[in-house]
Amino acid sequence: MPALSIDDLHRVLVECAGEVEGATLDGDGVERTFEELGYDSLALIETAARLKQRYGIDLDDGDVMAAETPAALLSLANAATRP
Questions:
Q1: Hey, how many other C-beta atoms are within 10 angstroms of the C-beta on 63?
Q2: What is the pLDDT along the chain (83 residues), one digit of tens a residue?
Q3: Which residue of 55, 62, 77, 83 is surrounded by the most CB atoms within 10 Å?
Q4: What are the Carrier domain coordinates in residue numbering (predicted)?
Q5: What pTM does this model have?
Q6: Residue 31 has what DSSP assignment?
Q7: Residue 74, C-beta contacts closer than 8 angstroms, at least 6 positions apart
Q8: Residue 42, in any domain of the structure
Q9: Backbone φ, ψ for residue 5 (5° rounding)
């Protein structure tokens, strides 16, 4: 399976939590915290469930909550897809 891209992750976040004004994941946005971007814990849990459903990426809820930035969550998701 190809690596999940930041665009893929952003699409899933928007599907699960809606478009948050100013929450762009381009440039330095990937290093901003989910809190700074306007995404709460429920949005992250929903995102993890959608990643499992759509891409088969099974993430532990605790690990998802510990991933404070989109970059960290993307890294976690891509590490989970490796054999």
A1: 15
A2: 678 988 899 889 888 887 766 656 666 667 889 888 888 999 999 999 999 999 999 999 999 999 999 999 999 999 997 55
A3: 77
A4: 3-81
A5: 0.86
A6: G
A7: 4, 5, 6, 9, 30
A8: yes
A9: -95, 165
Max CA distance (Å), the chain: 37
Taking CB atoms within 8 Å and a gap of at least 24, the contacts of 53-62 are 54/12, 55/1, 55/4, 55/8, 55/81, 56/1, 56/81, 57/4, 57/81
Of 5, 3, 58, which Cα lies nearest the Cα of 30? Answer: 5
Q: Cβ(46)–Cβ(55) under 8 Å?
A: no
Instruction: Look up residue 23 and give its two tokens.
Output: 């929450």
CATH code at position 73: 1.10.1200.10
